[in-house]
Amino acid sequence: MKRCSAPLRLRAAALSSLLATGLLTLATPAQATGFTDIGQDITPRDKTHVDLDGYFRLRSAWLYNLDLDRGLTPSGKPLFPVPLGDPNGQMLRRSDMRLRTDVNIYAPGGGFAVKTRVDVLDNLALGSTPDGVPAASTTQKPPSQAFRIKRAYGEVLTPFGLVSAGRMGNQWGLGMLANGGDCADCDSGDAADRIAFVTPIAGLIWAAAYDFSAIGPQTRQNSSTLPVEIEPADEVHTVTFAVLRWHNELARERRRKAGKTTFEVGAYGSHRWQDKDIPASYLPTAEPVPLTRGEVMTRNYHATAIDGWFRVLLPAFRLEAEAAYIYASVEQASLIPGALFRQPVTSNQLGAALESEAGTPDGGFWIGLDLGYASGDSAPGFGAFPDANAKPAQPGDLDGPQANPPRDRTVDNFRFHPDYRIDQILFREIIGTVTDATYVRPHARVRLFRAGPGEAMLSFAAIASWAVQPASTPGNRNALGVELDPTLYYGSRDGFGVALEQGTLFPQAGLDNPVDHLRAKPAQLWRARLMYAF
Which long-range contacts (CB under 8 A, 24 or more apart) does 479-484 make? Predict the structure, then answer.
């Protein structure tokens, strides 16, 4: 069976390496990932200055019945892994850690800076590298990739604007489409190899960027240590233009205390393209395939994304929303040289998210309502993380490719970024992200007490969700479930934080097993998280 090409597997997420203009997600400049953050910390200095900040995070989770006791899908898989030795077992566990370090180096005079992000033991499972026989091990071996350099880029302030270049974070708006992964509980995060220019004109921030999104196979000539591309036409290019009206955190707080309304808005357009492709360079094969002229295929891939974001801040209310539309087309979707399709594969995707919260920063109670929509595709499975070599999904499967040319030539399910979290179980753990779904999420939080340098918070959210396309669900029904998620959190101004999270999912007909006449049963999750920020 022929399969859809890699470009459309890039969630015309392909466009998730889109420009990171948007919001200051954390207070420190080293962790900022948007154009509004770039350059804010470049100020006059007498000598070279180095800033270091980051955090150490440790998490443990207990997962109960996340396969929902509804049996196997038609492809013979449970909705979530089950204990290997006891398929009827209910409880799974996991624990992991991460040390994140952001380093900023500022040159004398304050004209430019170089910034890096290094993650050590990134999401490493505790106890996963025992030395020798597990039962007799007395130590842990260092993992093969203990250090991961996530970002390395430079910023320079010119008379015309700010130029940044290198591998940098990528965030826009709410993080629904492009998310830098800066939050305390984030797992991944987007980065782009980019050259960008930002300048303020007429009270607005204007930005343009070119991304080196992907290149094909490379080779080395003679004794040179520098690689060279062997087919320039297979490069993936992305250009983006953005404009936004934005206030920094100090200006927002000053306006709030003065009783003023703050309105911020932004928009971008981005286009990505690839002329040719060499599938043999990235698809897994039993034996290496010699890269010859016959492996070069015409692709003619094009994808365009537009995204709008706004935020309204009143003294005691916040309303924030983002909406994105993506269109993509790949003229030749086959991955097999010589076995070609006659018609292109296309994609039309629409996603939107809204967040609201009422309550003042100095108050003790907050309440709000969040909404979300991600367009769907009528193919079986949600299409959250389809495998390039996976067989077409069968009705009742949880996931699978959304295109199966030449019969099915569309991929229309919009995928939220996995780090844009709305729940603890259904979209975060079972499906993997919000896609082919709508949700309603009322939420509230209350300050329990203040003690010394810290305070304790109790929050609660209820999430009701429905599939856009019932054919995508295992149960061939729209209703997915209702989830209840309470969280108890204590945070200190010194940088220490601890969170205890719980979730209970009450699945509905969309997650049932109609073939075997089995109804999905409730699932539960408990998670503990420790954070040491510096």
Answer: 479/508, 479/509, 479/510, 480/426, 480/437, 480/507, 480/508, 480/510, 480/511, 481/426, 481/505, 481/506, 481/507, 481/508, 481/510, 481/511, 481/520, 482/506, 482/508, 483/423, 483/424, 483/425, 483/426, 484/460
